[in-house]
Amino acid sequence: MKFKLNTGRTIWQGEAIEAGKNLEMYRKAAGVCYFNEEDMFKLGIKEGDSVKVKSEYGDVVVKAKKTTQTMPEGMVFIPMGPWANCVVLPETKSTAMPSFKGPLEVEIEKTDEEVPIMMDLMRKKYIEC
Questions:
Q1: Closest to 30 (Cα-Cα) out of 85, 95, 78
Q2: pLDDT (tens digit per residue) in 36-91
Q3: N or C: which end of the chain has fewer CB within 10 A?
């Protein structure tokens, strides 16, 4: 199913990054994709299910979360960080920061794959390059 992806900071992602990117707390805060309830129903997913997010730039597995904020149907949100980096425009325009602002068209499907830990995510993303 196709969606428009937007990214940005969240309070939880910001708090977890300060604690340490290699901690499970950070994966739970940044390795997620927020959906509205209607879109979760259409995809046949529930909170905590793994989903694969694919864009023209790559793909990543994250956990589905129901948003607590109002979000239009067809829009999803992934917090800024390494998981979002896998699917956003990698061009940094000499800023060393990927282009997080979109929205970017993505395709999302339920998967049995697990959300990668930081070490595995970095190996996949940068060793394959």
A1: 78
A2: 999 999 999 999 999 999 999 999 999 999 998 899 999 999 998 889 989 988 76
A3: C
